[in-house]
């Protein structure tokens, strides 16, 4: 119809669906933990503000979860529709975590339903809080299992290929691949970090608008602390991810770093552009840093793209995705660190408008960081869908009309995306914090 | 029992759960839209909010379970069905997504937009119709091989009477299942008016249901006589199903024991659904794929079954808790608890 290339359109549709789902999935992983934290603080300090935070967030969570569920269902089916050859092969080896993921969904869905609809059915608030534990675990397990599948695609293991036939399949070994530890932990840490900074951003924004001071200040302070902790974790685990890449997927690291020649004492290049001779211009060069990232040793040798045949080079654009992620990570780390030090030393510049705006920026930036990270990781796996075993071209469907389907999914996500924003805005605008607090003070709980 | 049989039985069982729970959900949306036209709105919207909102995600997971499970146990089905279902399944996904968005945007956010309620109702008819196409395709005759790649012929599919018979059955079944259940649920809430309305729906849809089901068996005779023959061999299952249908109808007609009627209705569908499934054996897709040649390796099969058992040990108590809180808690059901 428009573009009659099933492979290209399958890639674009996968890109679209996953990038859309990951917004909601990140919320699904991160938010229950923050709700739990607020709810717990509220009970411990006997502070109605924190309880109200948990309650309001839980209400918004309903909306994002519902959209997360429908987009997740879409990907689940699309994997088989767009990559039937891949799923046939992968089904034999890596179906186990996908199957386990369904149980995580079940678990999360059941307890979320109970938590949301039973706010006032427990006389003991602690019991109600307990219901959130399975929700938070379920969300984290969903992320865990799907990332396990993705790790397998980057570093297949747990089976042998004998004359083109699968043999000696070991589903457990396929789950615990070399890529798994860094990937899973990095994904989890960045999800928590992103949600913490997002909630901090909302608090900072409301404070500038002059909303309830005490309430939002508490929220801001807690979330900046949590965000800082997870930002550190993200950076440390990110460093381990780099070492993993250097060891097991050197072509991805080399492409991400525009590292063309195998070299010792390799510098890390941030940003810049490539001229026609593949020379980097205008980049920021940090001496030895790539060798350190790859092997914790400034003199270590880092494999370059020259070691790989041209057709196995990942697209060089992932350099920008990589740099976006790292820049954002460093920025958020600094921002939250300065904030905490300022609070400790009673410096007031962090309550100035310009600093608040920086915090507000943290929300879109963190989400962009997640997107950039995934783009770098997935595009950087090119041309493979299953590294070293099946290419994307071989995995894709041959069906026609992928372009038409793509078009309809663009429409669908537009509706869902706009709907989410409109409904969430309305939900919180119609019931500002002040109003809800009043109804508590009046003893008129509902 | 062989691993293949265990695998397909588990999957078929979950699909059955999905069909029952999903039908209740889909049908409720249709009736809700219909009652808005008649200006009798609040009767059903309340049921939807009280009962369906807390459990719709769980319903959805039953569906996810089925398709993830079938890829796990029968990876070749991912290849065959995945290649041919791109358009029909994408339509289903989009409809499911729009329906899910109703729960996200409507019942929690603002109160009742009419157009949205209609859309929600319409998906209740369109989703079963579009999903049922998969069953039709599995009967064979619509897929051919082109250079090793399976291709679906839309022309054959849309001109076959079998397709339309199955579509009609799926819609009628949804309305019937849903109205039987909601009759009981409304009577539990002691809402006389709603009970009366729902009971009327049961009486309306009961006969079309049997006619449509009979029509399919008749069509199969022409379309896939092997399957038709094995259905005849299992005649007693379908006969039992028919008896259960008759007793259900009798109970509802006489306004007696609505709770028992629900269970009998479930039994009726169980016999028909498993009768259909068993007679389909061993084919997943006539004549290209049986459960034996499409099966995964032994190591994977065993680990899937182990995970399934462990998962159920976690799941069953949680599901029980959910049902107790929302379906069987007399105070909540009657709306005395907010
Ligand atoms: C807010 C999000 C965010 C932030 C601040 C960072 N990352 Fe990240 N990164 C991700 C979000 C992310 C991700 C979306 O979660 C990825 C994509 C795939 C994956 O496993 O995690 C990822 C992947 C990823 C990979 C590739 C792993 C692979 O392809 O197997 C590396 C090497 C790093 N990261 C390294 C870093 C470093 C050194 C950071 C320093 C601050 C950093 N990341 C911050
Ligand atoms: C079962 C697991 C997965 C499968 C089968 C899968 C498959 C694929 C395939 C085939 C592509 C297209 C390749 C390309 O165009 O470069 C792709 C791209 C992508 N995937 Fe994955 N993926 C999986 C897991 C994930 C996860 C968990 C994420 C995280 C959100 C993710 C994020 C992406 C992104 C952002 C792209 C776009 C890259 C591009 O532009 O090509 N994937 N994936
Ligand atoms: C190939 C990639 C993916 C597939 C096939 C997939 C599949 C799904 C499915 C089917 C659902 C709906 C489950 C239900 O019915 O309740 C879902 C929801 C969810 N997914 Fe994804 N997913 C993918 C990527 C991811 C990633 C990368 C993450 C986390 C980092 C994630 C985390 C979640 C979470 C937490 C939910 C629960 C719903 C929510 O809270 O928003 N998923 N996913």
From TrEMBL, chain A:
- Membrane disposition: Multi-pass membrane protein
Q: What is its main location?
A: membrane
- Mention any Pfam family matching this sequence: Cyt_bd_oxida_I
What InterPro entries has UniProt attached to this entry? Cyt-d_ubiquinol_oxidase_su_1 (IPR002585)
Keywords in alphabetical order, please.
Answer: Cell membrane, Electron transport, Heme, Iron, Membrane, Metal-binding, Oxidoreductase, Transmembrane, Transmembrane helix, Transport
Q: Which GO terms describe its molecular function?
A: oxidoreductase activity
Q: What class of enzyme is it?
A: oxidoreductase
Q: Does the keyword Metal-binding apply?
A: yes
Per the UniProt entry, what species is this protein from, by scientific name? Geomicrobium sediminis
Q: Where in the cell is it found?
A: Cell membrane
- Look up the EC number in the record and give it: 1.10.3.-
**Of which family is this protein a member?**
Belongs to the cytochrome ubiquinol oxidase subunit 1 family.
Q: What PANTHER family does the database record attribute to this sequence?
A: CYTOCHROME BD MENAQUINOL OXIDASE SUBUNIT I-RELATED (PTHR30365:SF14), CYTOCHROME D UBIQUINOL OXIDASE (PTHR30365)
| Residue ranges of the TM segments | 20-41, 61-83, 89-117, 129-153, 187-208, 220-238, 317-342, 354-376, 404-424
- Claim: Cytoplasm is one of the keywords in the record: no
**Source species, domain of life:** Bacteria
Instruction: Provide the protein name.
Output: Cytochrome d ubiquinol oxidase subunit I
From TrEMBL, chain B:
Q: Which residues cross the membrane?
A: 6-31, 51-74, 80-105, 117-144, 164-186, 198-218, 234-253, 260-279, 299-327
Entry keyword set:
Cell membrane, Membrane, Oxidoreductase, Transmembrane, Transmembrane helix
Please give the InterPro entries that the UniProt record associates with this protein.
Cyt-d_oxidase_su2 (IPR003317)
Q: Tell me the membrane topology, using the record's own terms.
A: Multi-pass membrane protein
A Pfam family this protein belongs to? Cyt_bd_oxida_II
Its predominant location is membrane
| GO terms, molecular function | oxidoreductase activity
The enzyme's first-digit EC class, named in words, is oxidoreductase
- As recorded in UniProt, its EC number(s) are 1.10.3.-
Name its cellular compartments: Cell membrane
Q: Does the keyword Transmembrane helix apply?
A: yes
Keyword Signal tagged: no
User: Into which family does the record put it?
Assistant: Belongs to the cytochrome ubiquinol oxidase subunit 2 family.
Name by which UniProt lists this protein: Cytochrome d ubiquinol oxidase subunit II
Q: Which organism is it from?
A: Geomicrobium sediminis
